[in-house]
Specification:
Length: 207
Amino acid sequence: MPEASTVNGDLLEAFYADRTARLRVYEPPGIAAVLGAAGKPDRDLKLAALAADGVPVLRRRGGGGAVVLSAGQVVLALVTEAASAFHNLEYARAINGWFIEALAALGVAGLEQRGITDLALRGRKVLGTSIYRSRLVLFYQASLLVSNDVSLFDRYLEHPHAEPDYRQGRGHESFCTTLRAEGYDLDPQRVIAALEPIARRRLAGFR
């Protein structure tokens, strides 16, 4: 069963303590399955495989389906005060634009906003997001697939019970790709070095 702790939940707790925006950009140190707020372990996860491999199951605040975090990905998590209690799509796509800007500087072209708040290359997902809102508090998390092992998704995740139109019923390995698989010789640390300064600048004036 999922552990009590939530992924990056400490950022939200720290924000509530002093109302100062928080940002974290990192490569996950190991493998973990993460359920969204409404996720159901027996519906969304391949629990036998997770148990056999000793992979922890965690929760996160916010919507979206179950994901697998692992080395080779870049995760961006932030919490800040927003000017509106609404406009979640606009907020998510604005922050996704920080990824597009950073990756363009690294030579990645053709990223598209697809589904609700995904980023895709040639019709395949490379970034997924989750948002949690509490009045004017915005808690955003995203994972970018840089050079990770996409086969872990099929090993540990069931097919999602809800999916964006552009997925068209594809399995995890057919639907998702990585920047490395798309021909970009990048690693998470190079992406973090490009993304974090942009994210910190944009967050300072974010409303």
